[in-house]
Amino acid sequence: MGKKRRFNDNDLFTEFIRDNKENCYRLAYSYVKNSEDALDIVQDAIQKAILSYDSLQDLNMLKSWFFRIVVNTSLDFLRKHKRVSIVDAETMEFISSGKEDHYENVDLERALDQLAPEYKSIIVLRFFEDLKIEEVAEVLNENVNTIKTRLYKALKLLRIEMKDEMIKGAN
Known about the structure:
By secondary structure, this protein is an all-alpha fold. The protein is 72% helix and 0% strand. It comes from Cytobacillus dafuensis (Bacillus dafuensis).
C-alpha cells in the first residue's frame, strides 16, 4: 500500500509556498487587479492544492502544478464575478496624494488587460513570472507548439494595442 503524503512544517509544499508566495500573489493579481481578491485566490489555491496533493505524480513538477491551480482559480473567480477591475485603495491613495510622478508602464498594463485570457496567461507566465516556454505549457496544460503560436500572436496583439494607445495619447 502506498504512503499517503501528509503536510507538516517540514513538508516540501509548505517550503514551496513560503518561497513562492510573492510569485503566486503576483500571478493572481495579474488577473483580478485587486489585492484582497488576489490574496483570496492564493488562499483558495493553497486549499485546493492541499486537498489534491496526492494527485501530484512528480514532485519536480510542483511549481507548474501549483501555478496551474492559481491560474485556474483566478479564471474561475473572474467567471463567477464577471466584473470590471476596480482600483484598489493603495492605487487610489497614490493617485490622489500628489506625490512625484512615477511613470509605470500603464500602456502595457492596459494592453495586457485587452488580451483574451489564453494570451494574457502566456505573457504573464513567460515574461512576468519568467517561466520557460515548456513550463508555461505545463502550467496551462497545453502543447509547447500551441504556447509558442499563442505567444507570437499575443505579442503581435500587444504591439497593435500599444500602437493604438500611443496614437490615442498623441491626439
